[in-house]
Every structure is written in structure tokens, then in C-alpha cells.
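C-alpha cells in:
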């Protein structure tokens, strides 16, 4: 059982190195399995538990995968896939496992999904994925807990997503990339990670247009080849470091090419945090205490990312006044409130909205991470609380943030990762 131990009170200062994006590298590992020849090289790979699970999953279906941790590089040879089964014991440990289905369908004619994991955030349906595969001509048997998808060749079609699902869009693009004919995906996700995956697939030989417009057209091709690709920076990791500067009254330079925090930056600016873009470096500092309260409504890109909603709830605890947070993507993403309240916060939840009554002083105690982002939000709370905060289960934090304790310690934080 991994746990993080944080002693609050130190302002974070210095240069924070932002990792590669979890939500881009996972679909890229799935995409690498589409190439029947050669070796794919992925660079700027975040060394997180989800990547380790994805490596295990790719190996379990027969790919040869090397994770070179100090070089943050993955080398994937998928020329010989041997099993269509995504085994429950690996696949249930992360959400990205769902992104292996298109490659198995194309390469082996079937995919057996024994389970899909990921953060526990309420209902997390996969109906858009399976309906899409069916529209492309696959047979999907959902009658048992194990889902069986089969196809002897997919054919392009017009697909529609009720809401712009992130992994749903990636999966349907990958399924369409090697289908015969043209596929149109309406109401597709606009997230930058989806566009990065489209860039990689395009290098591999896929014919995809309309990325970022909500209407994606894919002209099927007969094969895709292995390429080298550098994973984009993780805007969620960057958001967390910006918030760490905000609540500790610190000053950080965020390094990671092309960082754009979008609405997260604007919201933090409204609270009194100062940003300056200096070429490739994004500087963030906060000398205004207390912060101003804020209204946040989560939405698909370019709205406020749901994955930063929990960290933002922690920041709101340090604002003077009532902040309002409305969660619109997931129906169960407020487990953090109870944990912050244990530390002395006053967060009140009603249905899919929360009000944060700040500023109450937070005191360190033992708290529970219910999911990845509530975990990192508790680390943030610990950085600014009085005394020691102990956060379990640290594994959930390690699912999405690489070398967190080392990176924060380098900035002056008093934080250790313990494996009892
Ligand atoms: C590995 C990965 O990239 N994970 C991200 C991805 O998750 P993920 O791709 O699972 O999230 P989706 O965008 O698919 O889900 C958003 C909402 O749509 C609903 N839905 C989705 C698909 C479907 O077939 N049917 C359906 O009803 C879900 O229940 C949820 O309420 O996007 C989320 C929303 O930005 C992020 O929080 C996750 O970090
Ligand atoms: C919800 C998240 O991840 P996943 O979809 O991988 O569970 C997240 O990164 O906050």
C-alpha cells in the first residue's frame, strides 16, 4: 500500500518539469499495435502506473515492448500479436485498456474484453464505443460480463456520439483507420490529446481530417506503419503544479513545450494567480493572499477539464468566500469533499454541485484518495495545511503522476512517498 506523507507550509519555488500526457500516451500504445510491421518509438512517455499496466497488457496480447524509464521512451514491436484476450487482472486496473480493442479487431479479427478499469467516478459507459463498432460491421456480444467483439473486416459508416467521448472518439478513429471506405464521426471529442493521437495516426499513414472540429472524416487505408512520436505535455500535471504554486504562495516556471492551460489559467487568474508566458516557459506565481472565490463548470474541451475539478476544489478551500463547482461530465466525482472536510474544510455537496466555503484553515490528518485526481488534490491540500497529511492509496496518484514526490521535493515541498 503506497502512501504519501506531506508536511505543509513550504512555498514551492523553481522549475517544474511537466510530464508527457497520460491521456495521450495510452491511446498511442493502442495505436502502435495497429502496425503489423516494424517498431514504434514513443518519446516523452510519463513513467506512471497506467503506462506500466499498458505495457503489461500489450505484452499479454503478444507485442514485444521495452519501457526505457530513464529515457522516457517506449519501443513497441507489434508484428506478432498472439492473443485477442484483454485479461481482467491487468485490464481492470486502468481505463486505457479499452483502447486496445481496435488493434485486436483489425489484427486478429476479434477482441475479448474481460474488464475495463479506471477511476471510480460514477457511471462510465462504453455504449458509444460498441455501437460504433457495430455500425462499422462488427458483431458485439455483450450478453456476458466478458465482452466479445468480432469482425472479418470493418466497413466505413456514419457514426454519432451522444456526447463527445474522449476514448470513444479515439477508438472509433482507430477502428475506422483500417476499415474499407469512408467513416464520418459526428460530435467527436476536441481534446488536445485526441489531436495528438490523430497526428501520430496520420504519420502512420491514416487519412484523417476534421480533427478539432467535432466532425472527423476517416478514409480507410489497408495498412499502417510504425513511426516515432513524441507525446504532448500533460496539461493536467501542469495544472496541478500551477495550483501548487497558487496555494503555497510560491513561484514556479513550468517547462514542457507548447503548454496551454486555457480556461484553467483564466480561472486561476480570476482568483488572483499571476501567469506569464515567456516563450516555451509558463511562469506562475501567487503573492495575493487570500485568493478570490471562483465559479467552475466542468465541460468537454475547451471547457474546464473535469480531471482538474478536484484539485480546483482544494484551491477553492483557500479562497476567501464561497466558490461554486458544478460537475457536468461524471455523476460521482465529489468523494474528495468528505476528505477535505476531515482536514477542516467546509465543502457542501448537493447532487452534481458543490459549494466551498473558504477560507477555513486546513490541518493535516489521515485521508483517503478515492481516485487519481482526488488523490493529487489531497497532496495539494497537504502542501498548504498545518502539520502532516497522510494520503492512501498512493497507487491511485501514481497511476497518473510520474515521480511526484521527487519533483515536488525539488521545488521545496516536504513530501515523501512511502511503501510500507
Ligand atoms: C484514459 C482517458 O483518456 N481518460 C479520460 C477520458 O475518459 P473517458 O474516455 O472514459 O471519458 P468519456 O469522455 O468517454 O466520458 C465522459 C462521459 O460520457 C459518458 N459516456 C462515455 C462513453 C460512452 O460510450 N457512453 C457514455 O455515456 C461517460 O459515462 C461519462 O459520463 O475522458 C475523461 C473526460 O474528459 C477524463 O476524465 C479521463 O481522464
Ligand atoms: C479519470 C481519469 O482517468 P481514467 O479515465 O484513466 O480513469 C483521470 O485521469 O482523472
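Residues out:
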Amino acid at each position: 500500500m503506497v502512501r504519501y506523507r506531506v508536511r505543509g507550509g513550504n512555498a514551492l519555488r523553481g522549475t517544474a518539469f511537466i510530464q508527457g500526457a497520460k491521456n495521450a500516451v495510452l491511446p498511442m500504445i493502442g495505436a502502435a499495435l495497429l502496425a503489423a510491421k516494424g517498431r514504434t518509438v514513443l518519446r516523452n512517455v510519463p513513467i506512471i502506473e497506467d503506462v506500466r499496466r499498458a505495457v503489461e497488457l500489450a505484452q499479454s496480447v503478444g507485442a514485444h515492448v521495452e519501457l526505457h524509464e530513464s529515457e522516457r521512451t517506449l519501443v513497441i514491436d507489434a508484428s506478432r500479436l498472439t492473443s485477442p484476450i484483454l485479461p481482467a487482472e491487468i485490464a481492470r486496473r486502468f481505463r486505457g485498456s479499452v483502447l486496445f480493442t481496435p488493434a485486436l479487431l483489425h489484427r486478429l479479427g476479434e477482441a475479448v474484453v474481460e474488464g475495463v478499469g479506471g477511476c471510480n467516478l460514477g457511471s462510465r459507459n462504453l455504449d458509444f464505443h460498441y455501437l460504433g463498432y457495430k455500425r462499422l460491421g462488427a458483431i458485439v456480444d455483450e450478453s456476458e460480463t466478458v465482452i466479445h467483439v468480432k469482425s472479418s473486416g470493418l466497413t466505413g459508416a456514419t457514426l454519432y456520439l451522444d456526447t463527445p467521448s474522449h476514448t470513444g472518439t479515439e477508438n472509433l478513429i482507430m477502428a475506422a483507420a483500417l476499415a474499407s471506405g469512408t467513416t464520418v464521426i459526428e460530435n467527436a471529442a476536441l481534446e488536445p490529446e485526441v489531436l495528438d493521437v490523430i497526428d501520430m495516426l496520420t504519420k502512420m499513414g491514416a487519412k484523417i481530417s476534421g480533427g478539432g472540429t467535432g466532425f472527423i472524416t476517416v478514409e480507410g487505408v489497408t495498412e499502417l506503419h510504425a513511426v516515432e512520436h513524441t507525446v504532448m505535455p500533460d496539461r493536467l500535471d501542469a495544472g496541478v503544479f500551477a495550483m501548487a504554486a497558487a496555494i503555497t504562495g510560491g513561484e514556479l516556471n513550468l517547462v514542457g513545450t507548447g503548454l496551454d492551460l486555457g480556461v484553467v489559467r483564466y480561472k486561476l487568474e480570476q482568483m488572483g494567480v499571476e501567469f506569464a508566458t515567456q516563450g516555451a516557459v509558463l511562469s506562475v506565481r501567487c503573492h495575493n493572499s487570500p485568493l478570490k472565490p471562483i465559479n467552475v463548470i466542468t465541460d468537454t474541451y475547451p471547457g474546464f477539464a473535469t480531471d482538474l475539478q478536484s484539485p480546483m476544489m482544494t484551491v477553492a478551500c483557500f479562497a476567501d468566500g464561497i466558490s461554486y463547482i458544478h460537475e457536468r461530465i461524471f455523476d460521482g466525482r465529489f468523494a474528495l469533499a468528505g476528505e477535505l472536510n476531515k482536514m477542516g474544510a467546509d465543502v457542501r455537496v448537493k447532487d452534481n454541485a458543490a459549494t466551498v466555503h473558504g477560507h477555513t484553515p486546513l490541518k493535516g490528518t489521515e485521508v483517503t484518495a478515492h481516485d487519481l485526481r482526488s488523490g493529487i488534490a489531497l497532496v495539494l491540500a497537504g502542501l498548504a495545511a498545518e502539520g502532516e497529511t497522510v494520503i492512501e492509496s498512493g497507487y491511485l496518484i501514481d497511476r497518473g503522476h510520474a515521480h511526484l514526490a521527487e519533483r515536488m521535493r525539488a521545488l521545496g515541498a516536504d513530501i515523501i512517498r512511502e511503501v510500507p
